[in-house]
Amino acid sequence: MTFTLFDNEERMAGRAEAALRDLDFGSDEARAAYSELLDAYRKSLREQRRMMRLGDRLQEQLSTVNQELVRRRAEAERALQQLRDAQDSLIQAEKLASLGGLVAGIAHEINTPIGITVTAASILADQVAGLRRQFQAGTLARSDFEEFMTTADEASRLVLSNANRAVMLIQSFKQVAVDQTTADRRVFELKPYLSEVLTSLSPRLRRAGHRVVVECDEGLEVDGYPGALFQVLTNLVMNALQHAFEAGKTGTIRIRARLFDADTVELRFTDDGNGIAAADQGRIFDPFFTTKRGAGGSGLGLHIVFNLIVGTLNGSIAVQSQPGEGTTFIIGFPRVAPARPVAV
């Protein structure tokens, strides 16, 4: 069935051969020319058949190659998706680890004011019980009552101040924890929010002994995603604690935020630590790149920062650094985040 295209040509060639036998060409030269023409036609048919067979083989080979390419592409896409899934899982684990560290730090931080409150309340309760006994026994003197009032004033002051301190810590933690675990958009004032974030991180900062300075325009409101901003600042702080300062040495972290123009917020995060080598500056946002692989570095902190700023905040980030002269991350993002497309 492959060569049925040439059946008609073969029949014509057969007729031409019959004509060569039966016709009178009038001369041997004419018969020889006709015979040569017939031979050429036969050769052409054979060549066409050969080319057809070759074309069929090439078509089969091309089909095989295409099938192999499709298979390899499917395998590559599956491998890429698996890599993305693994990366997403690692990033999520990094975020949860950050939240876990925040919980531990806040729990430790709250223990102090709660402990002082309990102690002061216990002392006040003992003083009240003693005063009641003296009153019931009729032995209560003016000096005893004055001493009780002094103790009660001091205990009340300690209870109120430390209870307020605990409430402030809990409120800060509650807000930033909600922001971190959701992708909700809301309007928030930037300067108080920066203070809330740093309050949540204060246990780690205080243990390290570093000074943190916040400079922000008063009344600067942002309509966006505070959870993403919290994660960005947390990762930048942890990156500075791990990489910028040598163990036992203290330094300064400075956060400056301002309205760069009518629509853009500029946030500069600066430390006066070790700085970043020029060869590493182009790679610090790459996933899994870290200079402290054996010291707890995952290489995902700044990669998460980059993704959140570019993807969620719709902004940009750049780095300026000189070895031994500290590092500055320059972040810009819209004051009013653009609307995300609605999935349909």
Secondary-structure topology with pairs:
Blueprint lengths: L6 H16 L5 H110 L4 H40 L4 E4 H19 L2 E6 L4 E4 L1 H19 L7 E10 L2 E8 L6 H4 L19 H12 L3 E6 L5 E8 L10
Parallel strand pairs: 2-4
Antiparallel strand pairs: 1-3, 4-5, 5-7, 6-7
Helix pairs in contact: 1-2, 2-3, 2-4, 3-4, 3-5, 4-5, 5-7
Keywords: Coiled coil, Kinase, Transferase
Enzyme class: transferase
InterPro entries: HATPase_C_sf (IPR036890), HATPase_dom (IPR003594), His_kinase_dom (IPR005467), HisK_dim/P_sf (IPR036097), Sig_transdc_His_kin-like_C (IPR004358)
Q: Could you characterize what this model shows?
A:
- The protein is built from seven helices and seven strands; from the N terminus they run H-H-H-E-H-E-E-H-E-E-H-H-E-E.
- With 344 residues, the chain is an alpha+beta fold.
- Among the domains are: 4-71; 182-334, Histidine kinase-like ATPase, C-terminal domain (Heat Shock Protein 90, 2-Layer Sandwich), CATH 3.30.565.
- The strands form two sheets. Strands 2-4-5-7-6 form a five-stranded mixed β-sheet, covered by helices on one side.
- A hairpin with a 5-residue loop joins strand 6 and strand 7.
- The longest helix is centred in the first third of the chain and has 110 residues, at 28-137.
- The radius of gyration is 41 Å and the shape is rod-shaped.
- The model has no long low-confidence stretch (mean pLDDT 80).
- This is histidine kinase.
